[in-house]
Amino acid sequence: MSKNDIILRAKELHKSYRMGATRVNVLKGLDFAMERGRFVAVVGASGSGKSTLLHILGGLDRPDKGVVQFEGRDLARLGAAQLNRYRNKKVGFVFQFYHLLDELSVLENVCLPAMAAKSVAGWFACRSRMKKRAEELLAQLGLSERAKHKPYQLSGGERQRVAIGRALMNEPAVLLADEPTGNLDSATGNGILDVLEKLNKAGQTIVMVTHDERIAQRAERIITLADGKIQGA
Amino acid sequence: MKHGLDVYKIILASRYLVKRRITYFAIVAVALCVFIVVVVMTVLTGLVSDFKQANHGFTGDCVVGTESLVGFAYFQELAQKLEQQEYVEAVSPVIKSYAFLSPVWTERGRGVQILGIEPVRHSRVTNFERTLHYRKGNVDKAFEPVYDPNLPGCVLGIDLVFERGPEGDYTFDSSPIRVGLAITCFPLTAKGALARAATGLVNTKTFYFSDTSHTGLARTDNSLVYLPLEQAQLMCGMDGPAPRVSALYVKFKPDVALQTGCDNVASLWQNFKQQKAEAKYAYSLDTVTVQSWKEYRRGFVAAMEKEETMMIVMFSLVGITTVFIVFVVFYMVISHKSKDIGVLKSIGVSNANIMQLFMGFAFSVGFLGSVIGVLLGWLFLLKMNQIEGWLFEKFGFQLWDRTIYAIGDIPSRVEFQVLVTITLSAIVTCLMGALVPSWQAARLSPVETLHVSRL
């Protein structure tokens, strides 16, 4: 794995939204490249299009114009099933509000992406392996004792760590984190950043969106979004 | 991503079912609907089925006859031909007419219908023997009063003799009481003129009560008097050189389909009629028709079938209400679960799989609701007659007044096929109610559901 190897690339991205009677142009020809193994922080003012960029990179949204390539493959050319597979296997999302499923236990939440990728028979064939992987992740994240708990029994920091575990379950190439500390106090937020740093050191590619410059400092590289483009690009 | 049965769908659907209390309303709605449908359909289907059976048992399979009071000639020849057919089990000639009935000690009486039959032959075609009380198993003596077998006997519809008890039962004497009944008929010629225009106009003869007949058909049991065929012929003026009857009741062999049998009889009847075209009383054959028992008793059975159809329509409306309840519940559940849908899409779950998840959830609601409803309905039906008996004993309440309705127990025979149909219908109803909300869930944009501000 080389750090010069481009894993994600965006070219001339345009995206606009309708807001009432007016149309807001969020991304205005943005170019972006991400090397494998990097930890990049995307910063910008509120409404600068950081989350939109993350959603487009993760295949949750489509640009109006422009190209997004993952390992050289244009995401726009992927069919619905291939795009679902991309979201399941290649990227992992971490959201500001954790978004854990209340009805599932911590362990089940972490296992969810693996369950979604397998049929009943397929799941039962690899269940013990998957469960072991989820337990290892929870151990790495310091949540071994919480495996059987429900999300509402956890603190904010613990919930975010569960969300990170879920995002990593299928060993994605890229981790996309949208304001992962935005809903946490500073000490807990630092704990989450420590986890991300550790993951990056182990080779995980991470794109983190934040509006906080101090948090962004923890990343290897910072890119700033302003007026729909990357500043200085 | 593949479609089909997945572990996460099973887990989530079952957890939504257990954890979302609002789904209990949907389950209760489905269970109540199924319970009502099971109970009412079972009772109604049972009533209709019993009523049809009683009508079938009263006439046999097929009727070759006329509604004209003069009857038709050459019936012995026709009966003989019919009995020679391999699809025919038995044939019974019948005289159907009206008479005035009064006990011999008074002139006060009432109008009745008379049915002239040969009891043994008639029992081979209909369930006449089973309807008797004193001569059951001894049908050849049906018209022989126990107290004096030499007297001319008559069998009376049970409600002409006994008062029906509040529980639908009758209290019989150990043997029929000696009662003479004067029966008066207007004898008619083959052309329909009064046969005794020059004399006393009517034929009156005293018959003695020999037995009762309980057919389970209220109107019949309340107005029918059975007489020996030859006596009825005399009374109605249908005797003479070319004796006449009103109808031939026909029973088919067990393996003969009703319609096939009736078609064969109709064809035979047409040939017979052509052969008799030049006969002296050929005109009496003009009004004769061939009908299956269903057509012959249409006037009675159709009313019940209409009630059954109306019930089905009413239950369709109940079904629509259930669809609406399920729709509202699912709409509420899904609007609370939009975040889950966004999460599932972010981990690569397809729109089709999201829809399957919620349809699976709807299936569980439908299945659980129907199982509860079917079980409750089955238990209720099992004890319904006891419950009704208890209510009658304690409060004098009866669902059907047995002094009016000719039923004993309320029908509560649960048909497995009916239960399966109701269960499947309830599940389909739930799926229909959940279809639109599930489709909307599948179409939700993950970006919309997951982010507070998409900018």
The poorly predicted ranges of chain A are: none
Count of the domains of chain A:
1
Proportion in helices of chain B:
40-55%
Describe the sheet with the most strands of chain B: 6 strands, mixed, barrel
**Which overall shape of chain B is indicated by the principal axes computed on the Cα atoms?**
elongated
Strand arrangement, major sheet of chain A = 6-7-8-3-9-10
* Major sheet description of chain A: 6 strands, mixed
Q: Percent helix among the residues of chain A?
A: 25-40%
Large-scale geometry of chain A: globular
Number of strands of chain A: 10
- Please identify the oligomeric state: heterodimer
- Please tally the β strands of chain B and state the result: 9
Mean pLDDT of chain A: 91
Structural class of chain A: alpha/beta
Radius of gyration of chain B: 32 Å
Short synopsis of the structure:
With 233 residues, chain A is an alpha/beta fold.
Can you tell me about this structure?
The complex is a heterodimer of chains A (233) and B (455). By secondary structure, chain A is an alpha/beta fold. Chain A has a single domain (6-226), classed as Rossmann fold. Helix content of chain A is 36%, strand content 28%. Chain A is built from seven helices and ten strands. Chain A has helices at residues 50-57, 80-90, 106-116, 120-140, 156-168, 186-201, 213-216; strands spanning 6-19, 22-35, 39-44, 65-70, 73-74, 91-94, 174-178, 205-210, 221-226, 229-230. In chain A, the strands form two sheets. Chain A has a six-stranded mixed beta sheet. A four-stranded antiparallel beta sheet of chain A has the order 2-1-4-5. In chain A, strand 7, helix 6 and strand 8 form a beta-alpha-beta unit. In chain A, helix 3 crosses helix 4 (120-140), helix 3 (106-116) packs parallel to helix 5 (156-168) and helix 5 (156-168) packs parallel to helix 6 (186-201). The longest helix of chain A is centred in the middle third of the chain and has 21 residues, at 120-140. Chain A is globular. The model of chain A has no long low-confidence stretch (mean pLDDT 91). Chain B is an alpha+beta fold. Chain B has two domains: 7-53 and 302-450, no CATH class; 67-287, no CATH class. Chain B has 15 helices and nine strands. In chain B, strands 2-3-7-4-6-5 form a six-stranded mixed beta barrel. In chain B, strand 2 (88-103) and strand 3 (110-117) form a beta hairpin. The radius of gyration of chain B is 32 Å and the shape is elongated. Chain B starts with 6 loop residues before the first helix and ends in a 5-residue tail after the last helix. The mean pLDDT of chain B is 88.
